[in-house]
Amino acid sequence: MRIQVQIGIECVVVSCSEDESIHAMVERTIKKLRKLKPEIVPTTDFKEIRRTIGNSLLDPDDLVGDILKDNDYVIITLDVHENGESTDQKIEKIKLNLEKPKRKITFDFDPSPDWGMMEKPTKLLVLDGNSLRPEDLVKCEKGQCILQLSLEAEGRVKKSRDLLEKIAIEHKTVYGVTTGFGTFANVIVSADKLKQLQLNLIRSHSTGYGQPLSPSKARMLLALRINILAKGYSGISLVNLKKMIAAFNAFCVSYVPQQGTVGCSGDLCPLAHLALGLLGEGKMWSPITGWDDASKVLSVNHLEPMDLGPKEGLALINGTQMVTALGAYTVERAHNIARQADVIAALTLDVLKGTTRAYDADIHRIRPHKGQNDTAKRLRALLHSDANPSQIAESHRHCNRVQDAYTLRCVPQVHGIVHDTIDFVKAIIEIEMNSATDNPLVFAEREETISGGNFHGEYPAKALDYLAIAVSELAQMSERRLERLVNHDLSGLPTFLTPDGGLNSGFMTVQLCAASLVSENKVLCHPSSCDSIPTSCNQEDHVSMGGFAARKALTVVEHVEAVLAMELLAACQGIEFLKPLISTAPLNKVYQMVRTVSPPLNEDRFMQPEIEKVIEMIRDNKVWECVAPHLKTLGDLEELDPDALRSNLKTPTGVTLLNVMDDDEEDVQSSDENEEIKKAENN
Asked: What pTM value is reported for the model?
């Protein structure tokens, strides 16, 4: 059997028999790696052994054949590091180093506030070029993963490189290998200058502008580029690819300005900056050094700079990874905020004493969009029912309201298309994350290189523009519900949700701030992919502008998170005026969670820190995690009994009415039974 074993940032393959113990296999592995890397493995003591898949602990006394399969991955945690410190001491030292004042550097950008991931990596992410997912990149962004190539990927990379070496030796005319780039494609470069050609390419294309990606996001970019190269169509050498992996595993990332890509031929400029640091030029960041000269950062972290051979520079910068990495991060955050928007809308509806009749399963069954039906089902599970009662809803059981304003009544229809759009965009991004986007592409099995256009960023650019447009609607709906909460004429609650209006302003400017963010989103939702500016002497005469599509989509999502946090705070404040009545069990849990960071607003106070805490709560998906167990339980109940979660709200006479009034009317004024039935029949 062959077992792939990870110790720290190093991985080795060991062969063992099925009747060998786990303990014996581990001792042989440590001995082997200690011989190869004595500075990394100074001891034979280990803390624990885990199987990578499932992260399950392994008993050292068990036999290899009973527990593991051929080519399984195992993680060994050593008891000490190279300087004799324990694992916990090493992590604590890194944290303390981050907290120390940094010496002055040429950049005024401090990444440490965004680099809150200094937890010990617990997951091994095996890259094969075909199966990376957006959620995997988010784990990389959080610092939870280290990387390793699959054995199959190593084989493909080696075959591709062998063909490139053969082409270089024979000095065949191949774009980017023995020729210049862009409009210089017809310029033949002599054999003795092929390495200089690639180095010049990286240096000349490192011309970005603006603030750099935070180290955590640059790490996503690096992971994604490694995954694309692992497909084996780019011609990168295995040695250089492993150097990139070593840099990732040591948390070393290049200084990558966010602006400067037009999304075709790929993200040339940011990917050039990513490569520049790995060559030992420009700036890099690591937990030990902060921002510093790349050569120093590599040296301090015991890393070797890359040494480029023919085509390797081009292999490093051709591709859509800047757009796609940010897109993957954005679509995952959009997924989280969209589900939480359903929860927050449900809480607001209960506080505003709305009716749940618009969420009846039969209404949505006859318009069977997936997102619409999923949202309606969530709302039914969260709001008042026999299985999940709300005292607030019970208090107005016999009111005469039949239908609500659209931002309450049409939540399934509006939120639903957002959910469907996110699923659509996520599918495109996931394909892009596992696609060969280099040029020329190296087909080792055909012994041929072919120039094509896979570097064009139109797919992720269009998808991310669409994502921004869709997700922005969550904030549009949320801000209008927030307005209803603070408006006494619409809510019946005190104006601006303050018990002493006039002396206190309450939530007056919370709604104002939300309105400003919604307005900004309207501008940001103009598609950047509608534009194209020809570049490279009109050789690249149509470009995607995908870089800006990705950056503004993320900004839109951030604004949506903020607006929904403001609505959530207002809805919780509204509950204070309905006490002692409480909402349903899951919604009451959300209320209680918010109250851990924001107490009731009895008089005006500085609210911005509390708003930020609730935004962070939403960003961490806490609202969804709070209600998810209830949704599963109540969802299972509805599957068994479709009527179980239907609303109990009735008219005064007990006649259940479904939208008996025109859309622009909100109340049924008559309480006479015959009049109610007559209106229902007429409509």
From this structure: 0.79
Pairing mode, strands 290-293 and 448-450? unpaired
Nearest 5°: the CA angle 436, 441, 444 is 105
What is the rounded CA–CA span in Å between residue 274 and residue 278? 7
Question: Residue 257: what pLDDT?
Answer: 97
Q: What's the CA gap between 225 and 115, in Å, rounded?
A: 21
Torsion of CA 65, 69, 70, 75, to 10 degrees: -100
Cα–Cα distance measured from residue 275 to residue 273, given in angstroms and rounded to the nearest whole number: 5
Peptide bond into 598 cis (omega under 30): no
Q: Tally the residues of the chain.
A: 683
In the chain, what percentage of residues exceed pLDDT 70? 84
pLDDT number for residue 667: 36
- Residue 605 burial (CB < 10 Å; 0-12/13-18/19+)? exposed
CB contact at 8 A, 587 and 347: yes
- DSSP designation for 63: B
Exposure b/e, 108-123, CB count within 10 A at least 16 = b: eeebeeebebeeebee
Task: Return left, alpha or beta for 260; rule: phi > 0 is left, psi -120 to 50 is alpha, else beta.
Answer: left
Q: Which residues pair with 292 in a beta bridge?
A: 284
Task: Give the C-alpha separation, 215 to 676, whole Å.
Answer: 64
Put residue 353 in one of left, alpha, beta given phi > 0 → left and psi -120 to 50 → alpha: left
How confident is the model over 17-70, as pLDDT tens digits?
888 898 888 888 888 877 777 765 555 567 788 876 655 788 888 898 888 887
Planar angle of CA 201, 206, 209, nearest 5 degrees: 155
618 Cβ neighbours under 8 A, 6+ residues apart: 336, 337, 340, 561, 564, 565, 568
DSSP state of 121: P
| pLDDT tens per residue, range 340-393 | 999 999 999 999 999 999 999 999 999 999 999 999 999 999 999 988 999 999
Q: How far is CA 36 from the centre of its chain?
A: 37
For 522, other C-beta atoms within 10 Å of its C-beta total 13
Tens-place pLDDT, residues 175-210: 888 888 877 878 888 888 888 999 999 999 999 999
Active site includes 175?
yes
Catalytic residue among 175, 233, 329, 466: 175
Give the residue ranges of DSSP H helices in 173-214: 194-205
For 208, counting Cβ atoms within 10 Å of its Cβ (0-12 exposed, 13-18 middle, 19+ buried), the class is: buried
Structure tokens at 26: 């581990």
Instruction: State the Cα–Cα distance between residues 336 and 346, nearest whole angstrom.
Output: 16
Measured CA to CA in angstroms, residue 487 lies from 484, 496, 506, 633 at distances of 5, 6, 12, 35
pLDDT band with cut points at 50, 70 and 90 for residue 15: confident
Residue 282, phi-psi category: left (phi > 0), alpha (psi -120 to 50), beta (remainder) = left
Lookup: tokens for 402 = 């039949």
